[in-house]
Design brief:
single chain; mainly alpha; 4 helices
């Protein structure tokens, strides 16, 4: 996959994640109030930021022909994504005193689930 196609795929995936996060945040805002909406946004943002960083790592080897190098690069990108999400969630839990855990998890889940859905619907 060329670097341009890879960047386009990640860009579309991030847009779908952002839309899903905003939708869940609006629902949480209506149901649980301002802190619920913010919690959902923070949960989704942790996944989106992790995916953005991972996409930069994954696209570094986009021109490689070696399957082993490609696989190792993708595994590194996924490990970094998970680490970034865990670190951001730890910071959020320690800093945001009015956190609504259910809303945070809903935002996180929406962004994570819709990233896979976005990738499966792309015609690459």
């Amino acid at each position: 996959m060329s670097a341009a196609i890879t960047a386009d795929v990640f860009s579309k995936m991030l847009k779908v994640q952002l839309i899903a996060t905003i939708a869940v945040a609006l629902v949480a805002l209506v149901i649980t109030g301002l802190h619920g909406g913010m919690s959902a946004l923070l949960g989704g943002a942790s996944v989106i930021i992790g995916a953005m960083i991972a996409s930069k790592i994954a696209s570094r080897q986009a021109r490689s022909e070696d399957p082993t190098a490609i696989l190792l690069n993708l595994l590194k990108a996924e490990a970094v994504k998970i680490l970034v999400i865990v670190v951001l969630l730890a910071i959020i839990f320690n800093v945001y005193g009015q956190l609504v855990p259910f809303a945070l998890i809903a935002g996180l889940a929406a962004a994570a689930l819709f990233s896979g859905a976005a990738l499966s619907r792309l015609n690459v």
